[in-house]
């Protein structure tokens, strides 16, 4: 039908109004104090949550997912940028949200009903109305019969139901959920997910939108209409994926599996094997400072993954690997990252594939694999190279661990700096590039070890 005659004078076609924006994040940046200044956690985040949609924030540990959720809730302020509720700024907590935490966060000295009533009491609602609304929320979430129970009497799943009832009783516009199922056993989590999605589908859900933080890719695809994938160091929006699958969603449908593969491909995006990781600063007297994070993966872990790939013919679907090995994203992706960083594997369309060098490593005996690793690691892993080069310049071939921690703390929190160094020490020791003595806290260069090979 031609509607041009109804167009306004600007020449734009008149159409139905767009979806109501409940929450908007504009150019949000969040930093925390660090030893050498500010540590960036989130950078340049733009995000909208519309009425009648579920949005998933998906990312690895350290991507700032929970920090972003707390900024949206008004629990912590952004360093720069803004958060709007129905196009208006707010002071303090966001008036339009309810929140469900991973850790349940119940008050142990209060009953189920008293815990659920907390938010209503804070809003000044009288006892009779408070009790009526709390009992309705308890009934909605399947807690009938437990009104007078204390948290210690409840299972983990029942405690989380109390958390949901407490958030929903105030009938918020947006329900924020911070990994609400990760502390539950697999069956309990699955049951609670299913019940919530069924309740959402009825249209009787007492909230207009849901924003869920997760590191579980399958959970994100099950729940969301849109998936926002966050990168790390600092957290930025890496991709936005629209999910158009009908509900209820079948995990075994080809479209579902294809979407899983697509998102795994986004999350495993790294330089390919012929593109070595780069560093910002060239080596100086104090060593170079790497900008590529070293994945938290043990040599045994990624070696085992390479052997599994070898036995699978050199290639495997990443989503199938996660399923077959019963590994979460935060367990599997660091192993994949290590293989990619070392040039032992590549990814393409959601599949992990061995390179020729990875095939050699997977098939080699222990001494040959150590020689290959010792040759590759200083070339491809910036932090291993930093340690190796700095020890070569040191007169006695030894440096305190604190020397490298000082370099790393310019870019990472104290906790992450220590984790990065621990992994680099383990990798270097495996390749017999250097040793570490806990009693003296020194890293010492190996004198031309045979396993190091030529470089």
Summarize the structure.
The protein is about 40% helix and about 20% strand.
Outline the structure in words.
The chain is α/β, with parallel strands linked by helices and 455 residues long. It folds into 2 domains: 21-266, Rossmann fold (3-Layer(aba) Sandwich); 299-452, Arc Repressor Mutant, subunit A. Helices cover 39% and strands 19% of the residues. The protein contains 15 helices and 15 strands. It has helices at 65-73, 112-122, 127-140, 156-168, 186-202, 217-223, 254-267, 299-311, 318-325, 329-341, 356-363, 366-380, 382-393, 401-408, 414-430, and strands at residues 21-34, 37-50, 54-58, 80-85, 97-100, 174-178, 209-214, 226-230, 237-242, 315-317, 345-348, 351-354, 398-400, 434-437, 442-445. The strands form 4 sheets. It has a 6-stranded mixed beta sheet with strand order 5-6-7-3-8-9, sandwiched between helices. The longest helix has 17 residues, at 186-202. The radius of gyration is 26 Å and the shape is globular. It starts with 20 loop residues before the first strand and ends in a 10-residue tail after the last strand. The model is unreliable at 1-15, 270-290 and 449-455 (pLDDT under 50).
List keywords for this structure.
2 domains; Rossmann fold; globular; disordered N terminus; Arc Repressor Mutant, subunit A; alpha/beta; about 450 residues; 15 strands; 15 helices; disordered C terminus; about 40% helix
């Amino acid at each position: 039908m031609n509607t041009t005659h109804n167009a306004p004078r600007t020449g734009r076609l008149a159409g139905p109004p767009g979806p109501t924006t409940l929450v908007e994040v504009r150019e949000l940046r969040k930093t925390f104090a660090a030893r050498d200044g500010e540590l960036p956690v989130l950078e340049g985040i733009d995000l909208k949550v519309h009425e009648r949609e579920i949005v998933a924030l998906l990312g690895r540990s350290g991507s700032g997912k929970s920090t972003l959720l707390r900024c949206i809730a008004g629990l912590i302020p952004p360093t720069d940028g803004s958060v709007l509720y129905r196009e208006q700024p707010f002071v303090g907590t966001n008036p339009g949200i309810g929140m469900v935490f991973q850790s349940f966060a119940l008050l142990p000295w209060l009953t189920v009903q008293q815990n659920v009533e907390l938010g209503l009491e804070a809003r000044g609602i009288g006892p009779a109305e408070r009790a009526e609304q709390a009992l309705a929320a308890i009934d909605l979430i399947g807690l009938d019969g437990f009104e007078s129970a204390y948290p210690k009497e409840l299972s983990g799943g029942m405690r989380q139901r109390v958390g949901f009832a407490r958030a929903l009783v105030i009938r918020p516009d947006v329900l924020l959920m911070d990994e609400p199922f990760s502390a539950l056993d697999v069956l309990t989590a699955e049951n609670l997910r299913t019940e919530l999605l069924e309740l959402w589908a009825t249209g009787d859900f007492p909230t207009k939108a849901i924003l869920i933080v997760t590191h579980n890719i399958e959970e994100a695809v099950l729940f969301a209409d849109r998936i926002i994938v966050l990168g790390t160091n600092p957290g930025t929006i890496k991709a936005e994926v629209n999910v158009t699958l009908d509900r209820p969603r079948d995990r075994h449908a080809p479209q579902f599996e294809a979407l899983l593969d697509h998102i795994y491909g986004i999350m495993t995006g790294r330089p390919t094997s012929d593109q070595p990781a780069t560093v910002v600063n060239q080596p100086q007297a104090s060593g170079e400072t790497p900008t590529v994070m070293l994945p938290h993966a043990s040599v045994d872990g990624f070696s085992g993954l390479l052997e599994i790939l070898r036995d699978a013919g050199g290639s495997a679907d990443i989503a199938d690997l996660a399923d077959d090995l019963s590994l979460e994203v935060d367990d599997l992706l660091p192993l994949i990252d290590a293989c990619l960083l070392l040039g032992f594997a590549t990814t393409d369309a959601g599949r992990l594939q061995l390179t020729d060098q990875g095939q050699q490593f997977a098939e080699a005996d222990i001494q040959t694999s150590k020689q290959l690793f010792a040759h590759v690691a200083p070339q491809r892993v910036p932090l291993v190279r930093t340690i190796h080069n700095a020890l070569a310049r040191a007169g006695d071939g030894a440096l305190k661990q604190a020397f490298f921690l000082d370099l790393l703390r310019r870019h990472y929190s104290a906790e992450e700096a220590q984790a990065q160094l621990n992994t680099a020490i383990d990798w270097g020791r495996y390749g017999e590039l250097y040793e570490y003595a806990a009693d003296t806290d020194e890293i010492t260069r190996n004198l031309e070890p045979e396993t190091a090979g030529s470089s």
